Amino acid sequence: MARKIVYWGSTGLVGLALLGSLSYLTGNPEVVSGFAKAGYPQHLRIVLGFAKPAAAIVLLLPGLSVLKEWAYAGATFAWTMAFISAYASGDGPRVWSLPPVLLTLLIVSYMTRPASRRLTATSPYGL
Q1: Could you tell me if 75 and 106 are in contact, meaning their C-beta atoms sit under 8 angstroms apart?
Q2: 40: phi > 0 → left, psi -120 to 50 → alpha, else beta; which?
């Protein structure tokens, strides 16, 4: 029971963080300037604005084992690069400390996920 609580707590927080990326699509000046400051093209903001919320939905829905693996991998890459980018651009700990916290929650979610949410040899395509 404790494992289930840890899984859903961490997965829920990860899902909320990923859904928050919908703000990338608003054209909010703060978001636009943040991507520009990091040297990223604005079309990356649009791609991530769709991809991260899609990953959240996949992680929260039952089934879709293969897509879940991709969602975990994609979030790992995105938050690793966000940390490196924020740290390298001289942002303070208030900015660069969030991605490692989210990565930790993502790892907890991945490690505690139930068997029904794992890719198995009997269902290689997650069906």
Answers
A1: yes
A2: beta
What percentage of the chain carries pLDDT values higher than 70?
Answer: 94
| Backbone CA torsion sign across 56, 24, 51, 35 | negative
| pLDDT in the model for residue 121 | 66
Tokens of 16: 């909320």
Angle at 46 between CA 25 and CA 125, to 5 degrees: 115
Q: Give dist(CA 99, CA 108) in Å, integer.
A: 14
Residue 22, token pair as written in the block: 């919908």
- The rounded distance, in Å, linking the Cα atoms of 63 and 11 is 15
In the chain, alpha helices (H): 2-19, 29-37, 42-60, 65-88, 93-96, 98-112
Q: Is 110:104 a contact under the CB 8 Å cutoff? A: no
Average pLDDT over the chain, rounded to an integer: 91
